[in-house]
Design a protein that fits this description.
Elements lengths: L1 H11 L3 H10 L3 H26 L2
């Protein structure tokens, strides 16, 4: 369980430039897909935060 929390916290620290760099440096299509999904998730989370702030 603790390992999962550590992994999540490390991924949550990433920004758009980080995920783009990871995609570009991916050695396999599976790695590329994974990092693209992580980037999409982080972008969606950021968009949700902005929408919530603007709706207040």
């Amino acid at each position: 369980m603790l390992r999962n929390i550590v992994i999540y916290k490390e991924i949550a620290k990433l920004n758009a430039d980080d995920t783009l760099q990871l995609v570009l440096e991916s050695e396999t299509e599976e790695e590329k897909d994974f990092y693209e999904m992580v980037g999409d998730f982080l972008l969606q989370r950021k968009q949700r935060e902005v929408l919530e702030r603007n709706s207040i």
